[in-house]
Design goal:
By secondary structure, the protein is an alpha/beta fold. The protein has 3 domains: 124 residues, 3-Layer(aba) Sandwich (Rossmann fold), CATH 3.40.50; 48 residues; 56 residues, Orthogonal Bundle (Arc Repressor Mutant, subunit A). It is built from 12 helices and 7 strands. It is rod-shaped. The protein starts with a strand and ends in a 7-residue tail after the last helix.
């Protein structure tokens, strides 16, 4: 969960931003508020803030000074300016300080939440959290689990690393790295393990021919299946079947 801070000397603006933001949609906590830059910095010292909405024209410490200090002290925070001034000097200062977006008052819900979505996406990328087609955010650990689930459910299909890489928006190298860290083996190694364990089960049942088992498990070449099985179990599929005790009642 990311923490949000709204910095504006006008209470109606703080209330409006709090009311219009779709916090639950992005699993964000209720935003904290500050009346000026000085107060905001004190709050950020007490608790890190991931997303900060900041006004440019405030007493004691304005938005420009606040951004200059906050950007240095909290480089990972995403700053979004909310200003009543369509002034080039303010916009230039905001850009110079690396703000994510610049929203003009009065605040419009659509613009506010578009900026919020952009901030969350940037934070997810910084923290290696990736979004899949369902709209759910996946941590690297959950991504590794999702890949395992995909293999467990689709091991009979032609699963490729390229396909998985595209599905989870990760490079092949990084995907392999997080999977191996989680499960102690590579993706293809795990896929082979699942297929071989299922092959052993099917061979014990003595209902299908070896070639049929190979095809069922996604092997287009029976010879390749036999070689893979021999390497995994140190015996051929035929010998494995012969050595398997007959099940009672069969």
């Amino acid at each position: 969960m990311y923490n949000v801070l709204i910095v504006d000397d006008e209470k109606p603006v703080r209330v409006a931003v709090s009311a219009l933001g779709e916090w639950d949609r992005w699993d964000l906590g209720e935003p904290a508020t500050a009346r000026n830059g000085r107060e905001a910095l004190k709050l950020m010292e007490q608790e890190h803030r991931d997303i900060v909405f900041v006004d440019m024209n405030m007493p004691l410490m304005n938005g420009i000074t606040f951004l200059e200090r906050a950007r240095k002290e909290y480089p990972g925070t995403k700053f979004i300016v909310i200003s009543g001034y369509d002034d080039f000097s303010y916009a230039h200062a905001a850009i110079r300080n690396g703000v994510l977006d610049y929203i003009l008052k009065p605040v419009v819900a659509e613009e506010l939440n578009e900026a919020l979505a952009k901030a969350v996406k940037g934070l997810n990328q910084d923290n290696h959290i990736y979004t899949v087609s369902s709209g759910d955010s996946l941590t690297t650990e959950r991504t590794a689990e999702a890949v395992k689930e995909c293999i467990d459910n689709h091991y009979t299909e032609n699963i490729s690393l390229t396909q998985l890489s595209e599905q989870y928006s990760l490079s092949k190298e990084y995907l392999c790295k997080i999977f191996k860290k989680k499960y102690g083996m590579g993706i293809y190694q795990y896929l082979l393990q699942v297929r071989m364990e299922k092959a052993a089960e099917l061979l014990q049942e003595d209902k299908l021919k070896i070639q049929e088992i190979a095809e069922l498990l996604g092997f287009s070449d029976n010879n390749y299946f036999s070689k893979a099985f021999r390497k995994f179990y140190d015996t051929s599929p035929t010998r494995f079947r012969r050595q398997t005790p007959e099940k009672s009642g069969s």
